[in-house]
From TrEMBL:
<dbReference type="InterPro" id="IPR001254">
    <property type="entry name" value="Trypsin_dom"/>
</dbReference>
<dbReference type="InterPro" id="IPR050430">
    <property type="entry name" value="Peptidase_S1"/>
</dbReference>
<keyword id="KW-1015">Disulfide bond</keyword>
<dbReference type="InterPro" id="IPR043504">
    <property type="entry name" value="Peptidase_S1_PA_chymotrypsin"/>
</dbReference>
<keyword id="KW-0645">Protease</keyword>
<feature type="region of interest" description="Disordered">
    <location>
        <begin position="1"/>
        <end position="44"/>
    </location>
</feature>
<dbReference type="InterPro" id="IPR018114">
    <property type="entry name" value="TRYPSIN_HIS"/>
</dbReference>
<protein>
    <submittedName>
        <fullName>Serine protease nudel</fullName>
    </submittedName>
</protein>
<dbReference type="GO" id="GO:0004252">
    <property type="term" value="F:serine-type endopeptidase activity"/>
</dbReference>
<dbReference type="GO" id="GO:0006508">
    <property type="term" value="P:proteolysis"/>
</dbReference>
<keyword id="KW-0720">Serine protease</keyword>
<feature type="domain" description="Peptidase S1">
    <location>
        <begin position="43"/>
        <end position="87"/>
    </location>
</feature>
<dbReference type="InterPro" id="IPR009003">
    <property type="entry name" value="Peptidase_S1_PA"/>
</dbReference>
<dbReference type="Pfam" id="PF00089">
    <property type="entry name" value="Trypsin"/>
</dbReference>
<keyword id="KW-0378">Hydrolase</keyword>
């Protein structure tokens, strides 16, 4: 019988798709609509990707708000930074 690792932390994942309304409400999209492309951000002159193009990327939300990102490394495991899961 395997011992349960007491240091491991399991979180329930909720898979959902971002609606067009949610996508348009992102701060970068609001900035683009109101003032043109952001020049002080990390990405300059980028463009949106079609849905399902980067299927291994994961957005992590807390209380419904984007908090962190991660990479899907198997059907049930997400690799992310420690600060995304430690409080």
């Amino acid at each position: 019988m395997k011992k349960k690792n007491q240091n491991s932390r399991r979180e329930e994942l909720h898979w959902d798709e971002e609606s067009e309304e949610e996508r348009q409400d992102r701060p970068a999209m609001r900035q683009k609509r109101e003032h043109g492309p952001m020049m002080d951000g990390r990405v300059v002159g980028g463009s949106d990707s079609p849905a399902y193009m980067w299927t291994f990327l994961v957005g992590i939300r807390r209380n419904g708000v984007f908090y962190c990102s991660g990479t899907l490394i198997s059907a049930y495991l997400v690799l992310t930074a420690a600060h995304c899961v430690h409080e």
